[in-house]
Amino acid sequence: MVIPATALFAALATAITLGVLAWVLWPLRNRHPWPWALSVLLLGVGVLALYRLIGTPAGLQETAAAAPQSLDEAIVQLKAELGRNPAQPEGWALLARSQATLGDHAAARDSYAQAVKLSPDEAALLVDAAEARALADPQRRFDDQAVAWLRHAIEVEPANARATWFLGVSQRQAGQNAEAAKTWEPLLGMVDAATARSLREQINEARAEAGLAPLAAATGEAADTAAAATNATTLAVKVSLDPDFASRVRLRGDATVFVIARVPGGPPMPVAVERHALQDLPLEVVLDDADSPMPTQKLSALREVEVFARLSASGTATRGEGDLESAPVRVTLPASQPVELVIGAPAP
Q1: What integer pLDDT is reported at residue 246 of this predicted model?
Q2: Which of 34, 108, 187, 281 is such that its CA lies 20 to 30 A from the CA of 164?
Q3: Would you say residue 42 has pLDDT above 60?
Q4: Which residue, 254, 251, 241, 257, is CA-closest to 311?
Q5: Which has the higher per-residue pLDDT, 38 or 95?
Q6: Cα angle for residues 191, 193, 194 (degrees, 5° grid)
Q7: Helix residue spans in 29-160 (DSSP H)
Q8: Where in the chain is the domain with CATH 2.60.40?
Q9: What single string gives the DSSP state of each residue in 130-157?
Q10: Alpha carbon 279 to its chain's center
Q11: pLDDT digits (tens, 9 = 90+) for 211-247
């Protein structure tokens, strides 16, 4: 038999009320036992009668009925609460995360902006707000406001790896390759050996485009990376050019092929990437944690990725005008079969 919530509440309230009154009136018991018992009973009945008259015995049922049944309904209720009391940075941040979960990046951007207004010195919030602005941008670019938030986050928390990484990405997007390399270099001492190897490759790529010499690999870094990669998640990928496309289009011999894995619907930054020459096609690669350029995100930490290949005329991983991409393929990890990508294939 299931006891109704209101009945259970009434029973508990009765027991607690009688117990408290018995304890408060205990000094009367030894001298006047019958008046003591009668007082406990009458006061207990009086308290419960008063509750029945002016209390809310159906409160438990009303609370249960008011609970949201879906994320959409929860968002509606949260918006209503913030409309009544907008001075809640945690509420705006929660609303933004919920909106981002539903893929409404523009709404998440605006909600994070409200949260930052209320908590302008919280580093984690500043980074989330900056990332939301990039996700809401059609080109996934960090605008001036996002960059300002990232810089302030680093001022508040100099060791914030996400803020440092995203700031370097924004600099690469703006063609500030030397600045990006300099921004990323401190991260090498904050990550494990496998991540440091991939990060060093990104730094050296930026340095090369800025006309600077590459950084030397740290002692033992390659060996540590190989050992760490032994037990990591791997993803085999086959990349080729569509034959008809290759016969119709003249491609530059110095064009570069990037094989990229990223979070589906997430940030534009890859969680794993490899760079190859056009002449290497068709090619087979194996992506793993050693190919991750992001110190805070590794392939082995994900259950699902989106994989695609990009033919870049500029030779940079950031998408540029005239670049060509294969159709993206969503993959559940670990994958038992290689992912096949065809650049230049007609859209289905």
Answers
A1: 78
A2: 108
A3: no
A4: 257
A5: 95
A6: 100
A7: 33-54, 59-66, 71-84, 89-101, 105-118, 123-136, 144-156
A8: 232-343
A9: HHHHHHHSTT----HHHHHHHHHHHHH-
A10: 37
A11: 999 987 665 555 554 444 444 578 999 999 988 887 8
Q: Dig out the tokens for 66 from the structure.
A: 């008011």
Looking up tokens 């006309």 gives 211
Instruction: Name the β-bridge partners of 284.
Output: 238
CATH 1.25.40.10 fits 71-222, yes or no: yes
Which residues, in sequence order, are bridge partners of residue 285?
237
The CATH architecture annotation of domain 232-343 reads Sandwich (2.60)
Distance of CA 93 to the CA centre of its chain: 12
* CA distance linking residue 167 with residue 127, whole number of Å: 10
Which is it for strands 256-262 and 272-277: parallel, antiparallel or unpaired?
antiparallel
What is the residue whose two structure tokens read 């304890």? Answer: 23
Percent composition of the chain: helix, strand, coil (DSSP 3-state, to 5): 55, 15, 35
